[in-house]
Specification:
Elements (H helix, E strand, L loop, with lengths): L1 E6 L4 H13 L5 E9 L9 H33 L5 E9 L2 H12 L3 E5 L10 E2 L1 H9 L4 E4 L10 E5 L8 H14 L2 E7 L7 H13 L5 E6 L4 H11 L4 E6 L3 H7 E2 L4 E3 L6 E5 L4
Helix pairs in contact: 3-4
Organism: Imtechella halotolerans K1
Pfam families: Usp
InterPro entries: Rossmann-like_a/b/a_fold, Universal_stress_UspA, UspA
């Protein structure tokens, strides 16, 4: 049974990501962990006694709000999802969001994280905020980042963005193939050329990848005279891509695709959900 972590800050964006995960996995048994973390309070300077007491009070309030919020979310889930093969468990964690998610993944043997691209801050632009970007960077399991208004309507077109810089782990490719087969989708391998053609080394990686993708419909697309981020955005929009996949390795390709290092945010100006896998050392 697949185990999926659903982080929530009780915003509508995080609820939408929960619904997306439920719909995406509606035909398979899953155990979902509905997860909320409330961060340790950073006290203002004061006397030791008053500061400690204030921190305790604030922590208790945050703990109660987390428990009540999770209870409300579970009521919504039970009203929405009646699949008897879906089971749920709530987790309330007193820790910072990134470290608490990493701990939960290890403790509960989580297979995948599905979360919204932004929280309750009310930002109007469709973007992956710094929290989601940090989680994508630091966790070792697959992460699906769901834009605010994305609705799961099945997968017809799956794009796999690659720079052909290393040999992909079979487990990562198998996950993409799993969704492609389950949804009868076509995989479109997308590469932004930086020269007139692939180098001999990259051609070897492409051939290896082609072997891993055997058994599913696939096409290769080579973009020229365009930056990686613009090329992927235009490709996703023009092809009406349902899921954009990539393998993150030491930030480099992920950073070139999306990262705005000056403000620590990842701009993602489409409504395309993003599946980020992680390079595994063989």
């Amino acid at each position: 049974m697949k185990t999926i972590l659903l982080p929530t800050d009780f915003s509508e964006n995080s609820w939408n990501a929960i619904v997306y995960a439920l719909e995406m996995h509606k035909d398979e048994p899953c155990h979902f962990f509905v997860f909320n973390s409330y961060a340790p309070h950073m006290s203002a300077p004061s006397t030791a006694v008053s500061s400690a007491r204030a921190s305790e009070v604030i922590q208790e309030i945050a703990k109660k709000e987390s428990a009540q919020g999770l209870e409300t979310i579970m009521k919504r889930i039970k009203e929405y999802d009646t699949n008897p093969t879906h089971t749920f468990e709530i987790i309330s964690s007193y820790d910072y969001i990134v470290s608490s998610i990493i701990s939960a993944i290890e403790k509960y043997k989580v297979d995948m994280v599905v979360m919204g691209t932004k929280g309750a801050s009310g930002l109007k632009e469709v973007m992956i905020g710094s929290t989601t970007a940090n989680i994508i960077e630091k966790v070792k399991c697959p992460v699906i980042a769901v834009p605010e208004n994305a609705v799961f309507k099945g997968l017809n077109e799956i794009a796999f963005a690659t720079d052909f810089s290393f040999y992909y782990n079979e487990d990562n490719i198998n996950l993409i193939k799993y969704y492609a087969k389950k949804q009868e989708a076509t995989i479109r391998v997308v590469h932004v050329l930086t020269a007139s053609k692939l180098s001999p080394e990259k051609e070897k990686v492409r051939e290896y990848l082609d072997g891993l993708l055997n058994g599913v419909p696939k096409h290769y697309h080579y973009l020229t005279d365009v930056s990686v981020d613009v090329g992927m955005r235009v490709f996703s929009q023009s092809r009406e891509i349902d899921l954009l996949c990539m393998v993150n390795k030491q930030r480099s390709f992920f950073e070139r695709l999306f990262l705005k290092s000056s403000i620590g945010e990842v701009s993602f100006h489409t409504q395309t959900p993003l599946l980020v896998l992680h390079k595994k050392n063989n």
